[in-house]
Request: fold
Amino acid sequence: MIKAGMAGFGKMGRIRAAEIAKNRQITLAAVYDIDKNILPADVHICDDFDCLLEQDIDSVFICTYNNVTAEYTKKALLAGKHVFCEKPPATTYSELKEVEEVAKSSGLVLKYGFNHRFHYSVIKAKEIIDSGSYGRILWMRGVYGKAGSIDYDKNWRNYRKYSGGGILIDQGIHMLDLMLHFAGEPFTKINSFVTSLYWKVEAEDNAFAIMQTDKSVTAMLHSSATQWRHKFLLEICLEDGFVNLDGILSATRSYAPEKLVTGRREFEDVTFAMGKPKEETTWFEYDDSWKLELEDFISAVAEGAPLKHGSIDEALGVMELVDRIYRNSGVCDAH
Reply:
């Protein structure tokens, strides 16, 4: 039985705690959050993070504001605890490099919560692409947008003091991680615009980026808090067809339905299907991503199995990309 502690019991903390409660190999033993009113009654309540580390626990789930994730991760590893940390892994790439030094010398498990890789549509898309049946990837185009809300400008995620950035580091980072996942190599050329177009916040509400790998795989990203609806779409065009991820399941189902659309190019015979290739759609009704992600962490801790996703190297790759998009746009000098 793995004994876990948790720092931060907001939305993500409660999601993780609910999943832990369903698993017989792990138990939540202690929790720390600055708001004592939201804490569960059946675990040990800690007054600070140091108190949490002093408890009889094997691992720590870090579900806090972004500005302390790197610090907490290092402290937990130095205290001999395995760590599961939510995204983003830090507010800057340089912060995460400091974590890397501690993590690789500790010999402990460090996993980051890039949850989207565990969605069934993403798993299936990766299988199709890696099979080579559609040829190599030519380009990707991704849109991840929020509807916003009447109090959007008051959310902590929009203030760099707590988050390190705006919509890009909050939500766009998931799309960037998927693009890296499918491309299988880093993007070395980047052009970007990161700006606040509507919301009166100090961080960005829109990020636009066009990126290219050394093998000329080109990816275009639009991360937006002015979509006025929830939208997730990643189009992947390959030599012999396309693989599109359209929608993604969540607790609110506001980005649903989740489906995978595939099609093959059809221009060999001009009398048939010009511009209207036959498509196949697979619908996904269940989201086991939280469960699969937790099982990945447990396997690494209990059995020494390699992480399927969320390693420090993958986290460094996406954070370097986030930093470069910010720097290239001329905003957020901290990056």
Q: What stands out?
A: The mean pLDDT is 94. The two ends are 40 Å apart (CA to CA). Residues 185 and 213 are 7 Å apart (CA to CA).
